[in-house]
Specification:
The chain contains four helices and no strands. By secondary structure, the protein is mostly helical. The radius of gyration is 11 Å and the shape is globular.
Length: 69
């Protein structure tokens, strides 16, 4: 809801607890993209999430947008 820094902190903590969960990976990766954070890490997370949940359209959209630049 506009507080990307706080959301990023929660996403990072969630990833520490559930690093193989595609939804957590997507959230963390997408927030990194939106915040201008570590782009390589964001793309890695989004690619991993897409590989684990290939039918998830939201994850695929986030990956496509992140790859555009």
């Amino acid at each position: 809801l506009g507080n990307t820094e706080k959301a990023l902190d929660y996403a990072k903590r969630a990833y520490a607890v559930a690093p193989d969960n595609p939804s957590v990976m997507d959230t963390y990766g997408w927030l990194l993209v939106q915040s201008g954070g570590d782009r390589a890490k964001a793309l890695s997370l989004l690619r991993g999430a897409a590989a684990k949940a290939p039918a998830n359209q939201t994850i695929r959209n986030h990956l496509a947008q992140a790859q555009k630049g």
